[in-house]
């Protein structure tokens, strides 16, 4: 049951990753402007933090089959 829960979480994460890949032109424009370079860096750090946090989620509630 727990494995299924974490598999769903991973699938969720990878779907979000695919959405982010579609936003790559926006990030590229930010990189070229260099004014929003810090925002770009902080977004990368935030994504890495989320990926790290998903690994250590508490156990799911009892209602999940």
Automatic annotation (TrEMBL):
Domain of life where this protein originates: Bacteria
Keyword entries, A-Z: Membrane, Transmembrane, Transmembrane helix
Transmembrane segments: 37-57
Protein name in the entry: Uncharacterized protein
Source organism per UniProt: Saprospira grandis (strain Lewin)
Taxonomic path: Bacteria, Pseudomonadati, Bacteroidota, Saprospiria, Saprospirales
